Amino acid sequence: MEETRRYLNSIGIGEPHLAESEKRFGDGGQYRFEVPGIQKPGAMRVLIDAMEENDVKVHRITQTKGIMLLTDTEIQEMVDLALDAGVELFLSVGPRATYDTSASARTPEGARIGYRLRGYDNLVYAVEDVRRAADLGVRGIVVYDEGLLWVLGRMRGDGELPGDMHFKVSAHCGHGNPASARLLQDIGADSINPVRDLQVPMLASIRQAVDVSIDVHTENPRSSGGFIRHYEVPDIIRYASPVYLKTGGSVAGHHGWDTTESQARERIRQVVLVRDMIERYYPEAVLSSGGELALPSRR
Question: What is the pLDDT of residues 6-18, one digit of tens each?
Fold first, then answer.
């Protein structure tokens, strides 16, 4: 094993150790808040109002059902709301195995395909989904397929997509080790959401291998295990920063849940709970001021 460990270390995949992360966001912050599962403008508006009422900062709002399920008017409204509130808006690629004609994706064995793309045409459709969002001013995209990420990264570099586009890899890709995280970073990821149940030392090993932000679920819907990690959050920040704390998930019944306006308020309540946990157990942790956010662009 020592020979393998030495080789991994030589290519930047060192043996994990719980040293505090010295990596930060560009503004010096260690953590940001992300609220996922906000699918429509109405829920987003209520969420932003609740942020202001509770004096809590959320940096990123994420839609998970798919760009193709939103009208141009809805996307533009969400872009405007994000800009006015100074928050990132990330929309998810729509085409995915569970939306196309795949029978395998709905079987226990075939479910391993996750939301990845099947065939050439679905790859084209996915790129078109991203192009449409970019044309409407969106600058944050959630990606579920590594091949698509590679294509989008090339397109961004070649000027086919805006240079300020940010690509976030979903937990539904199933990545959970430092080598996989390094690969994702190398092919274009700006933010990586590993599988939801990684222990803190596992997150630390990923942090040692990559510089991009790691997105960690602080709680989960029942369909993803339903576990809540509020007490772990201080150590997640300490050893894995910079991190996005994905908060509010236990309100949802499953991924893609159409959050109601009242549930949007409950998601902010959960952000408050996590914020209070940080202030109680790791008060010196630095909340990102919001510099260098992937804010939308007005048309």
Answer: 999 999 888 777 8
User: In one letter, which amino acid is 94?
Assistant: G
More confident residue, 266 or 60: 60
Q: Is the pLDDT of residue 254 over 60?
A: no
Unique residue bearing structure tokens 């043996």? 15
Q: Are 218 and 233 in contact (CB under 8 A)?
A: yes
Instruction: Give the residue among 121, 176, 126 at the shortest CA–CA distance from 150.
Output: 126
Give the SS3 label for residue 169: strand
- How distant, in Å, are the alpha carbons of 24, 113, 116, 152, 182 from that of 149? 24, 16, 11, 5, 13
Look-up of token digits 């942090």: 207
Q: Judge contact between 178 and 206, C-beta under 8 A.
A: yes
Q: In the chain, what is the straight-line distance between the N-terminal and C-terminal CA atoms, in Å?
A: 55
Contacts of 226 (CB under 8 A, 6+ apart): 220, 250
What's the Cα-to-Cα distance from 65 to each of 1, 93, 102, 191, rounded to whole Å?
43, 8, 18, 19
pLDDT band per the 50, 70, 90 thresholds, residue 252: low
Strands 31-36 and 60-62: parallel
